[in-house]
Design goal:
By secondary structure, the chain is α/β, with parallel strands linked by helices. The protein has ten helices and 16 strands.
Length: 319
């Protein structure tokens, strides 16, 4: 089988031919139908992600596929079941082994491409905005990187929770994607002053930041009193230093959020959140946006789309 592997952090990932894996006890073997890419895959490829495995390993954190074999002690999901799973790695391949307990059946009406890119992006935004920031109806949510994989889902979920959403993205095309997802106000990070524009709209009660860098600093300056700032990631490449005097004077709370970390201490939180999101999708409240579906043979091209910020929503790999 083919697998897109990291052999060394000093070299680019390559497509390799490997023997098909065998599921260990508690695991299932999936015939992969689709793999959703995440910014974390870029970080894993160069060894800078917080949960990077030791090489060699196969990239691809979240997948949708069909169960073709079960390891010892596994009764469910049954062979032939189409499931989605966040495995942390192993998805950019023809086949992969994943923990059976983490697999979730995929509704018939949801395509494999949608299911593969659903869990991390929607799960991140839902838990971050509900559990951590406790976003309330009527509040103003500022979303940085609003056309990206997680940012676009934050726009949708913010609207579903009753917030007024200010979307920040780069260029008119990306802002149009955020507008289609429900954003009430649009700010172009290429031409607009984020801080001034947000303050002119009444300021932000909650900030959703997967970008970091200068955008974080501008958003912090536009926060209302008792605002909550959720730190999701650092797509800009710059980890901001937080000025404690500003958060003190305005009673601002800065909140860290790492969705995958919940697997280690409260997996039920992820399960419950995903169940809610699946019901919202079935009810038509969520409309996942996949900008590119790319074949496994061109996996390097898929990573470059994300690296160059030429994609919107999700990029998905199919065998």
């Amino acid at each position: 089988m083919r697998a897109f592997q990291v052999s060394s952090f000093a070299t680019d990932p390559t497509l390799e031919s490997l023997a098909p894996p065998t599921p260990a006890p508690g695991e299932v073997l999936l015939e992969v139908a689709a793999c959703g890419l995440n910014f974390a895959d870029l970080l894993m490829a160069n060894g800078t992600y917080q949960d990077t495995p030791k090489p060699p390993f196969t990239l691809g954190m979240e997948v949708c596929g069909t169960v073709v074999a079960q390891g010892a002690g596994v009764d469910t999901p049954a062979i032939g079941t189409r499931v989605a799973v966040f495995g942390g790695k192993g998805g950019m391949a023809d086949q992969g082994v994943f923990p059976a307990a983490l697999c979730r059946p995929v509704p018939e009406e949801m395509t494999s491409e949608t299911a593969a890119g659903f869990m991390v992006a929607y799960g991140t935004s839902h838990l971050a905005l509900t559990r951590r920031a406790q976003l309330e109806a009527g509040e103003t949510l500022l979303v940085l990187g609003a056309a990206g994989g997680v940012g676009l889902t934050a726009v949708e979920i913010g609207k579903a929770l009753g917030a007024t959403v200010i979307a920040v993205a780069r260029g008119v095309d990306k802002l149009a994607v955020a507008k289609a997802a429900g954003a009430d106000h649009l700010i172009d990070s290429e031409t607009d002053d984020i801080k001034s524009a947000v303050k002119a709209l009444g300021g932000a009660d909650v900030v959703y930041d997967p970008v970091g860098g200068d955008a974080f600093k501008a958003a912090l300056g536009a926060c209302n009193r008792e605002a909550r700032v959720i730190v999701i990631g650092f797509a800009s490449g710059e980890v901001p230093q937080i000025p404690a005097n500003i958060i003190l004077v305005k009673n601002i709370t800065v909140i860290g959020f790492y969705w995958g970390g919940y697997l280690g201490f409260d997996a039920d939180a992820l399960t419950d959140s995903l169940a809610t999101l699946m019901s919202w999708h079935a009810a038509g409240k969520l409309k996942p946006h996949v900008s590119h579906v790319i074949q496994l043979d061109n996996a390097s091209q898929a990573l470059e789309l994300m690296r160059s910020r030429k994609s919107t929503g999700k990029v998905v790999i199919t065998p």
